[in-house]
Every structure is written in structure tokens, then in C-alpha cells.
Write a structure and sequence with these properties.
Layout lengths: L4 E7 L11 E7 L3 H10 L4 E3 L5 E3 L8 E3 L6 E4 L2 E5 L4 H10 L2 E2 L11 H6 L3 E2 L2 E2 L4 E8 L4 E6 L11 H4 L4 E9 L1 E2 L3 H18 L7 E4 L14 H7 L6 E2 L2 E3 L6 E4 L5 H19 L8 E3 L3 H11 L5
Parallel strand pairs: 2-5, 3-5, 4-19
Antiparallel strand pairs: 1-2, 6-7, 7-13, 8-14, 9-10, 11-12, 11-13, 15-18, 16-17, 17-18
Helix pairs in contact: 7-8
């Protein structure tokens, strides 16, 4: 695998939107589908990273090999169908759809993610989700060491999850195909995109305030209604609360920003406090939307208490 770009003891700070420093033993940056297939066939339990917008890397470093998909950014268009590789940015997809006068990807405007992560977590906003327009995906099955194609039903999409997220490490998205809708004009698409970007600017931190998106999924209460995790966290008085260098964002309490050289332990401890106070007040157990990657024993134990709290 000498021809594949490879770096050792490399800081992942540039590959996560929280901008936490985390030294990876090995990272690989494939430029073609053949290269990533070769890596997946030969590496043991690799971490797949796009822009790292929902990944919390351990400050203690990452021992597992890391594959960065940013060079896998080819898009094929046959309107109203768009097929894109895993490393394509969601902003690029949104803009491309607009240029083709296709509606359906407006909600991706301003979303700091790549297609691989967006499909895995079934990214959504404004009552839309990426699964709404999904046709099929090409995946690599690491357990069977083969490439498979799955349709929408087989992907097991639901709120903020999919087959990929339900089986961490087994399936890796290589590319996905979507069918959007033709719009009557560019104006309505552009207006929706502008409204979404403006709303995000008013309520969510930008990348100048390092963060990794929503800390928790919006929960369902005892009446079966989806409630805002941010509103619950706000109501227990945690806006602006600090844990080391990590802070609950003032404008939206479901975001944690890297306020001052935060460590992964700062982030985990703050999430545990948010979860505990919301449960004590509302009897609702928040479920993390963030993925933790690391092997530090103490951090892993604390993270497991966070993600398994609902079952305890």
C-alpha cells in the first residue's frame, strides 16, 4: 500500500470540527475507490473520517488506523438523480442541487459534514432528512470483506441513525445515490437555503467557535412527543456552563464549544452533567449524538456510562 498517502503520529486537529488535538498512530488519505477498498480489505477496524463533525477524538490519541475520505469527492449527475462519493461535502451537494434547479438538499446548506457521515447518521433539519431522497448506497462490508449495494429499506433509516450507525465498524459507505425533485424556479430553492443558513447563524455556533454539532439527540417524552434536547438543557440552567475548556453554547444549549483548549475528558464530563441534570429534572435520559473514538481506559468507562445510561 506504498502508493496510498500515509502519515504516522499525525495530529487529527485538522480533521475534527471541535479542533481537539489527538495524535493518530496512522492515517491514510485514499484518492480513489480502489485505494479505499484496498485499505478496508487490509486494515483492522479502521476509523472512517470525513470532516469529523460528529466525532470526539480522545486527547490521549487514537491507536486504530484512521482513513480520511476528503479526496473521495466525485459526483455524477443525471438529473434529477445525483450520485456522490463518501467524501463529498454536504455544502457542495446542496449548491450543486441548486445549480441543477433540484429541490430536496436545501437543508444541507451550512452543514459541516461529508456525505458518509450524513448518511450514517441520517442527517436532517427543517423536517427533512437525507433518507427522504435516498435510492441506494454502495458499501464495503468489513465482516464479509466484500462490496454490497443496499436500497433505502435495507439501510434501516430512522431518526439520526442507519444500518451503518447501528453496526459500528462493519459497514463503510463508498457512495450513495439520490433522486431529488425538479423545482419550478431557482428562487424558492435559494430562499430556503438562505433561510436555513441564517437560522443556523442565529442559533448555532459556526466553525470559528469549534464544536461537533448537537451533543444529544432530541428525545421522545412519555407522551410520545419529540422534545428539544437544547430546550431541556437550557431549562436546567446550563447555558454558558464550563467544564475545563468546554462550554455549553449560549445561543443553543445542545452545542458544546471548545472554549479554551478543551480536552476530550472536559467534553465527556460536561455531557454527563447535562444528561444527569436533565434526567433529575424531567425524568428524560438524553442519548448522545456524538461518537467517541479512543482507547483511554478511564475515558472509555465514562463514555460507556453516558451511552448506556438509558439501559441502566
Amino acid at each position: 500500500m506504498k502508493e496510498i498517502e500515509h502519515r504516522i503520529n499525525y495530529d487529527l486537529k485538522a480533521f475534527n470540527t471541535l479542533r481537539i488535538s489527538s495524535i493518530a498512530d496512522d492515517i491514510y488519505l485514499p484518492k480513489t475507490m480502489d485505494e479505499i477498498k484496498l485499505l478496508l480489505a487490509n486494515l483492522d477496524n479502521p476509523v472512517i473520517v470525513g470532516c469529523g463533525s460528529n466525532i470526539l477524538f480522545s486527547s490521549s490519541g487514537v491507536k486504530r488506523p484512521v482513513i480520511v475520505t476528503k479526496h473521495l469527492d466525485k459526483v455524477t449527475v443525471n438529473p434529477p438523480v445525483i450520485e456522490a462519493q463518501a467524501g463529498v461535502s454536504t455544502v457542495k451537494l446542496s449548491n450543486m442541487a441548486f445549480e441543477l434547479r433540484l429541490t430536496g438538499f436545501e437543508f444541507l446548506s451550512g452543514l459541516p459534514a461529508t456525505l458518509g457521515g450524513a448518511v450514517a447518521m441520517n442527517a436532517g433539519a427543517n423536517a427533512q432528512a437525507i433518507s427522504d431522497y435516498f435510492i441506494c448506497a454502495t458499501l464495503y462490508d468489513t465482516k464479509e470483506d466484500k462490496i454490497i449495494e443496499l436500497n433505502r429499506e435495507e439501510m434501516e433509516f430512522s431518526y439520526r441513525t442507519s444500518l451503518l450507525k447501528k453496526n459500528p465498524g462493519r459497514y463503510v459507505l463508498l457512495s450513495a445515490k439520490f433522486e431529488l425533485m425538479e423545482a419550478d424556479s431557482y428562487v424558492a430553492i435559494k430562499q430556503m437555503m438562505d433561510d436555513i443558513v441564517e437560522k443556523r447563524k442565529k442559533t448555532q455556533p459556526g466553525l470559528k467557535e469549534p464544536n461537533i454539532g448537537c451533543a444529544f439527540k432530541n428525545p421522545v417524552n412519555k407522551d410520545g412527543q419529540t422534545v428539544s434536547a437544547g430546550k431541556l438543557i437550557d431549562e436546567v440552567g446550563l447555558k454558558g456552563h464550563l467544564e475545563g475548556g468546554a462550554m455549553v453554547y449560549f445561543n443553543h444549549a445542545n452545542f458544546i464549544i471548545n472554549f479554551n483548549e478543551a480536552t476530550s475528558m472536559d467534553y465527556i464530563n460536561l455531557m454527563r452533567e447535562m444528561q444527569r441534570l436533565v434526567f433529575d429534572r424531567f425524568d428524560i435520559m438524553l442519548e448522545p449524538e456524538v461518537i467517541y473514538i479512543g482507547s483511554d481506559k478511564k475515558e472509555t468507562e465514562l463514555w460507556n456510562t453516558l451511552i448506556n445510561a438509558k439501559n441502566n
